[in-house]
Amino acid sequence: MNSSTHGDAGPGGGEVDAAAVALLVRGIHDGLADTRHRAGRIAEAFERYASIGPRALEPCAAVRVLDGFDEIDAAIAAVSAACTTEMLTVQPDGIRSPSILAHASTRDPALVDRGARMRTLYTHVARYGHALTAYLERLGDGAEVRTLDEVTDRMMVFDRTVAFLPANPERTSALELRQPALVGHLVTVFECLWNRAVPLAEPVPAATGITGITHRERVIAALLAEGHQDAVVAQRLGISVRTCRHHIGRLAEALGSSSRAQLGVRIARAGLGGPAHPVAPR
Predict the structure, then answer these.
(1) pLDDT tens, position by position, 53-85
(2) Gap between the terminal Cα atoms of the chain
(3) What are phi and psi of 277, to 5 degrees?
(4) Burial (Cβ within 10 Å: 0-12, 13-18, ≥19) of residue 127
(5) Is the whole model's pTM more than 0.70, yes or no?
(6) Are 257 and 210 in contact (CB under 8 A)?
């Protein structure tokens, strides 16, 4: 193989290649320098945030996530023990179990004894729980209960400064809120519901103005008109799916409906698409 086949770059070819390589290396070097500079600025910003975040915010964190029933219960117990003026509670799950009310009875009487006022919102179904009556007798005049067709999800507010909300559907996590605007908003929601609720000492409205349809069945009709399935309607009213379907059957019979599709039309024609009185979205 002779020298003409080696691809000679000609005069000065080596110098051109060297210049190209130098230019390439310089570009890489400049890019690395710029990356290091930006990384340094990010690190400085993070250090500034870290220096004020945990130490400054931890003692009075606006939002704290609580994981597990033990941590949630301990946090609620600590705040309850410090409560001196008012405790607001929303309980959405229908009839309260004796075990849950027994646990609350170990904490709530002390709060009332300190002069704090307790107000609780339940669904109408909770009225049929015998354990609730015994629980309220222990609390005496310091506790007041009202009921609605449906309420918001579970909520607790202490002294209008600390609130607790579920953080997941299973309620195995919770949020502890101390941000004044957030807590104030929750108090406003509670007061709106409270003003629309029926005191426990008063009967729940039964008549709807339509023969054969009870107040509860009118509420069910409104929820069906919104497109909710039976299970969702039952959950929102704190009743079993079986009981819910029994009421739907009575509703269909009263309206002369033979199918779900026809029932929806009859509900609309009867003017039952809206609630008997305002109810709370969940």
Answers:
(1) 443 334 457 999 999 999 999 999 999 999 999
(2) 86
(3) -150, 160
(4) middle
(5) no
(6) no
